[in-house]
Amino acid sequence: MTQAGALRAALIEAIEDEYRARAIYAAVLARFGPVQPFANIVWAEGRHVAALEGLLSQHGFAVPPDRFAGRIAAPESLIAACEGGVAAEIANAAMYDRLSRSVSDPATLLVFARLRAASALNHLPAFRACLARAGSGAGSGPAPHPAASPASGASPLVGAIGLAAAAVLVRALRRKTG
After folding, report:
1. H/E stretch holding 131
2. Strand (E) positions, 28-170?
3. pLDDT in tens, 61-90
4. 158-166, long-range: CB < 8 A, 24+ apart
5. What tens digit of pLDDT does each residue of 7-57 get?
6. What is the dihedral of CA 108, 152, 63, 87, to 10 degrees?
7. Model pTM?
8. Nearest to 104 by CA among 59, 71, 38, 60
């Protein structure tokens, strides 16, 4: 497979995974109402999709349609939804690890690093906390208004990781062109 073919395949796999996650979390919201962490994370998944759409367009690749929206049923319980969220975010982080080994484009590697960090450092702990609350009978609580959410849905640590990844990529590019 060519470099362009590998890049396209990686981007398509990534956006399909983000589409699927967004659809699952939206189905949970439709079934259970504006519960956390689903309300914030569905919004973050939309930002992940947008980042991947930008990369696909930047490289001249067609953006595939979202074949998951409105086609996925929510789990039967909020506990099952939280368990599914934990499994999905673990798989998502592993997918970005694997895909990052198959591409060399610096912009794509940076986006993959940021999306992986969001899954591992923000979404996964939120779903684990959801399980802990659901198991204690405390529930997940209503969602705040989206405007109250951080712009990226990311913690300061994720921002620092993004900056660190950018610095590594800049140094690698300088060595390559220098």
Report:
1. helix 124-136
2. none
3. 999 999 999 999 999 999 999 999 999 999
4. 158/114, 158/117, 158/118, 158/121, 158/122, 161/113, 161/114, 161/117, 161/121, 162/110, 162/113, 162/114, 162/117, 165/109, 165/110, 165/113, 165/114, 166/110
5. 999 999 999 999 999 999 999 999 999 999 999 999 999 999 999 999 999
6. 90
7. 0.77
8. 59
Burial class (CB in 10 A: 0-12, 13-18, 19+), 56: buried
- Token pair for residue 11? 């981007």
Task: State both tokens at 169.
Answer: 């990529």
Residue type, 16: E
Alpha-carbon torsion (116, 170, 105, 51), positive or negative? positive
* Placement of tokens 């979404």 in the chain: 123
The pLDDT-based confidence of 134 (bands split at 50, 70, 90) is: confident
